[in-house]
Amino acid sequence: MSVSSIFVIIVCVGAILILGIYQLIRRFKQNKEVLHESEMIQQKLIEIQKVDDITERFNQMNDWILNQESKYVKNYVVPAWKSFHQKYMSQGVSLKLVPDVYDFFVEEELVHKYGNRKFVELIPGMFLSIGILGTFASLAVGVGSLDLNANSENMRAGVSSLLSGMQSKFASSIFGIFASITWQSLDKKLFLPRLQHAYFRIRDSFDEAFPTQDQNTFLVQMLENQKNQMNDFQVFMSEQMIPQMINGFNQSLNQSLLPPMEKTQELMNELITSASVNQMDGVKQLTSEVMNSLNDLTGEHMKQLGEALEATVEWQKKVHEEMTGLVDSMQEAAKNQSEMVDKTTVLTQEIHNYTDNITNYQKVLEGTVAQLNDTTSTNSELQSATSSLLGKIIEERNVFNAHFDEHISKLQTNVVSIVDQTEKQVVVQELLGQNLERISEMTLSQEQLAVSLSEQASHTQSSSEELGKLLIHFENNAVQYNDLQEKMGDMLQQAEKDRRVFDQLVERIQTNLAEQVEDMDERVEYLGSLWSENKETMDKLSKQLSTSMSQFTDDMHRGIMRTFEKFDEELTTSVNLLAKGVDSMRDGLVDMPDVIQELKQSVIEINNQAKRATTV
Asked: Does some domain include residue 469?
C-alpha cells in the first residue's frame, strides 16, 4: 500500500471527523439556547396571564420581548411577535378580536430556518460521499502506481500489493457510513425533538396567554353590546322622553278637558236616572218573553230526550238480535270446521293406506328386480360356458376340421343369435334399471306427500282446537254482552226515574214562575200608578231640561272653543318636544352607519380567520 493512498484515506477520515465534531458542537449549543429561551418565554407568558386586560398583556409582552438580545428571540421570535401584535393593534377601538397564534408562530420559521434543517439533513450524505471519495481516490492512486510495461513478476507484485491494501482503502467508506448512521440517529432522536419541543412550548404558551376568540364568543360580545345600547336607549326613553310627554298630556288634559267632561258626566247621570224609570215597562215585557221562551225550550228538550231514549232502546234491541245471529253463525261455522276435521282425518287414513299399498308394490318390484338379477347372472354364466365351449371347439378344430365343418357353421350361427339375445337382455336390464330408479323417485315423492299430508292434518287439528277456543271466547263475550244489556236496562230504568224526578222539578219551577209572574203583575200595576204620578213631574222636568239643554249647548260650545285653543297650544309644545326627540334620534341614526361599518369589518375578519383555520 502506497503512502499517497494512505494520505488520501487519512484526509477523508479527518474531513469527516472535523465536519462531524463542528456540527455536533454547533447543534448542542443551538439546542441549549433554544431550550433556555423557550423556558424564559413560557415563564414570562405565565406571569402576564395574571393581567385581566388583553391589551395590557400585549403591551407588557411587547416591552419585554423587544428588550431581549438572544439570537433566537431577536431573529426568529420577534418578527412573528411583531406581526401578531400589529394585527391585534390595527383593529378598531370599540371591539378587538385576538388573532390566532397558529397563523403567526409557524414551524417553518422557528424550527426549520433556525435549525438549518436542510443542511443538517444533507450532512449524512456528505459523510457518505467523503468516505466513498476517499476509497475511490486511494484506489485510483494504487492503480496509477502499476507499471504496465514491467515484466510479469513486477506486475504480479504490484497487483498483490494493490489487493492487500483494499481492506484499508475501504476503511474511509465504512467510516463515512458509520458517521452517517450516527448523525441521523442523533438528529432524529435528539436535535430535532428538542427544537420541536421548544417550538411547541412557545406556541402553546402564547395560545394560553392570548386565547383566540372564536365566532361564538365574538357574537356573544356583540349581543352584550347591543343589550347595553338597548338598555341605555330604554333608560333614556323611560326616564326623560316619556315622562316629559306624559306630563305635557296630563297638564293639557287637566287644564282644558276635565271641566267640560265633569259637566257632561253630571248631565249623563241625570239622564240615566230619568231613563231608569222608562226601563220598567221594558223589564215587564222582557220577563213575560223569558217565561214563554223557557216553556218552549224545556218542552221541546224533554220531548227530544224521550225520543233519544226510545231510539237507544231500539238500537240495543237490534244490536242484541245481530249479536245472537252472529253467535249462531259462529256456532254453525264451528260445526262445519269440526266436520271438515273429521273428513281430513278420514282422508289422512286413506292416504296412509295408499302409502302402505305403494310400499307393498315397491316390495314386489324389488322381488322382481332380484329375479331379473338372478336371470342376468345365469345368462352371464351361460355366456361364460359358451365361451369356454367355443375355446374347446377351436382347440379341436385342427383335428376335426373336415368332419365338423357343417357343425361349426351351425354353431357360429347359434353363437351370433346368442350374442344378439345377450345384447337385447343388456338393453332390457338398462331399461329395468331406469324404471327402478323412477319407481324409487316416485316412492320418495309419495313419502314426502304423505309427510306433508300428515303435517296438514296436524295443522287442521290445531286450527280446529283454536276455533274451539274462539267459540269459547265468543260464548264468554255473549255472556258479558248479556250482562251489559242487563246493566243497560237498569240504567234505562234509572234514567226513567230521573226523568220523573225532572218532570216534577219542572212542574215546581213552572208553579214558582207563575207565582213570580203574578207578583210581577202586581208590581207592574203599582209601577203604572207611580208612572201616572211621575208623569206630571216628567213634564216639568222636560221643560226645565229644554232650558238647561239650551244653556248647556251654549256653555259646551264656549268650553269646546277654549279647550281647542288650549289643546292647540299644548299640541305645539308637544310637537316641539317630539321634534327635539326626532333630532336626537336622527343624530343616533347618523352615527349608525359607522357602527355598522365597524361591525361589517369585524365579520369580514372573522370569516377570513375561519377560512384560515379551515385551510390549516
From this structure: yes
What pLDDT is stored for residue 103 in this prediction? Answer: 83
Is residue 217, in this structure, part of any structural domain at all? no
Residue-range definition of the domain harbouring residue 353: 234-606
Looking at residue 356, what is its pLDDT?
66
**Grid cell digits, residue 319:** 244490536
Q: Model confidence over 243-295: pLDDT tens digits?
A: 666 676 566 556 655 565 566 556 556 655 655 555 556 545 655 554 565 45
The separation between the first and the last C-alpha atoms of the chain, rounded to the nearest angstrom, is 61
Cβ neighbours of residue 599 closer than 8 Å, sequence gap 6 or more = 222
Distance CA 123, CA 121 (A): 6
Single out the residue of 120, 137, 124, 141 nearest to residue 171, CA to CA: 137
Q: Identify the weakest region by mean pLDDT among 251-260, 320-329, 520-529.
A: 251-260
438 vs 369: CA distance, rounded Å: 13
**Angstrom distance (rounded) from CA 88 to CA 567:** 59
Torsion angle (degrees, nearest 10) of CA 156, 159, 160, 162: 160
Most confident range, picked from 1-5, 132-136, 196-200, 305-309: 196-200
259 & 344 share domain: yes
pLDDT at 500 over 70: yes
Give pLDDT tens digits for 371-381: 656 666 665 66
Are 199 and 243 found together in one domain?
A: no
439 close to 362: Cβ distance less than 8 angstroms: yes
Number of structural domains found in the chain = 2
CA proximity to 533, closest of 277, 282, 198 = 277
Q: Does position 43 have pLDDT exceeding 70, yes or no?
A: yes
Q: Is the pLDDT of residue 74 over 80?
A: yes
Question: Is 311 a domain residue?
Answer: yes
DSSP annotation of 149: T
Q: Are 615 and 106 in contact (CB under 8 A)?
A: no
CA 456 to CA 459: how far, in whole Å?
Answer: 5
Q: 452: closest CA among 362, 344, 358, 363?
A: 344
Q: What is the pLDDT of residues 542-598, one digit of tens each?
A: 677 667 667 766 776 676 677 667 767 776 776 677 667 666 666 666 666 676 677
Q: Are 34 and 198 in contact (CB under 8 A)?
A: yes
172 and 294 share one domain: no
Residue 570 to residue 534: CA distance in whole angstroms: 48
Instruction: Examine the domain organization and report whether 238 and 204 are in the same domain.
Output: no
Distance of alpha carbon 174 from the chain centroid = 63
Quick check: 208 and 49 in contact, CB under 8 A?
Answer: yes
Q: Write out the H or E segment, with its range, that includes residue 22.
A: helix 3-48
- Of 212, 246, 272, the domain-final residue: 212
What is the DSSP secondary structure assignment for residue 93, as one 8-state letter? S
Return the ∠ at Cα 542 (arms to 538 and 545), rounded to 5°.
130
Lowest mean pLDDT among 170-179, 194-203, 412-421: 412-421
Give the closest residue to 607 by CA, choosing from 214, 123, 205: 214
In a shared domain, residues 125 and 25: yes
Same domain as 322, residue 202: no
Best CA proximity match to 442, nearest among 358, 356, 368: 358
> All 3 cell numbers of residue 458?
296436524
Q: Are residues 379 and 477 in the same domain?
A: yes
